[in-house]
Amino acid sequence: MGKPQGDGSNQSALKRMRASLQTAGVLAGSQPRKGSKKYQKRLAKLARENPEQLVRNAKERHEKLDAISTLYNPFDIKTNKPLKVKAVGRKVKGVRGAPTLSKQVGLENRKKTLLVEWQNRHRSGGLIDRRFGENNPHLTPEEKMMERFARERE
């Protein structure tokens, strides 16, 4: 497995994740203990005064956690075996892959193409209206009839 190479430091993944949690303000150490009376009183007061704020804070915290967890998921990154012989100035393609991202892109592409075909699988035929002016919304019914009559006379 490979480490996410964001800052290039020699810290472990756990330390980098903990630092990003602290900067986001999500880490439990930056908040009071949930079992303390002080925290419970403050939470009850906040719930009485502004319950929407409490829900919004929980949603924001959940969104921040989701964003951080996607950065540090080791299963999102696949590191391939390095080359035996390294050459100076040689660019190596495909050293790191993102299988989950490519899988997601493939699913979206299949939904765009194959889903439409699958939904229309039992449909056949259909009428195509080739009458003059039928597909033109700017013509009045009288103009359509006049043009059809003129073409019929030709």
TrEMBL record:
<comment type="function">
    <text>Involved in nucleolar processing of pre-18S ribosomal RNA. Has a role in the nuclear export of 40S pre-ribosomal subunit to the cytoplasm.</text>
</comment>
<dbReference type="InterPro" id="IPR007276">
    <property type="entry name" value="Nop14"/>
</dbReference>
<feature type="compositionally biased region" description="Basic and acidic residues">
    <location>
        <begin position="140"/>
        <end position="154"/>
    </location>
</feature>
<keyword id="KW-0690">Ribosome biogenesis</keyword>
<dbReference type="GO" id="GO:0030692">
    <property type="term" value="C:Noc4p-Nop14p complex"/>
</dbReference>
<keyword id="KW-0698">rRNA processing</keyword>
<dbReference type="GO" id="GO:0032040">
    <property type="term" value="C:small-subunit processome"/>
</dbReference>
<dbReference type="GO" id="GO:0030490">
    <property type="term" value="P:maturation of SSU-rRNA"/>
</dbReference>
<feature type="region of interest" description="Disordered">
    <location>
        <begin position="127"/>
        <end position="154"/>
    </location>
</feature>
<comment type="similarity">
    <text>Belongs to the NOP14 family.</text>
</comment>
<dbReference type="Pfam" id="PF04147">
    <property type="entry name" value="Nop14"/>
</dbReference>
<feature type="region of interest" description="Disordered">
    <location>
        <begin position="1"/>
        <end position="41"/>
    </location>
</feature>
<protein>
    <submittedName>
        <fullName>Nucleolar complex protein 14</fullName>
    </submittedName>
</protein>
<keyword id="KW-0539">Nucleus</keyword>
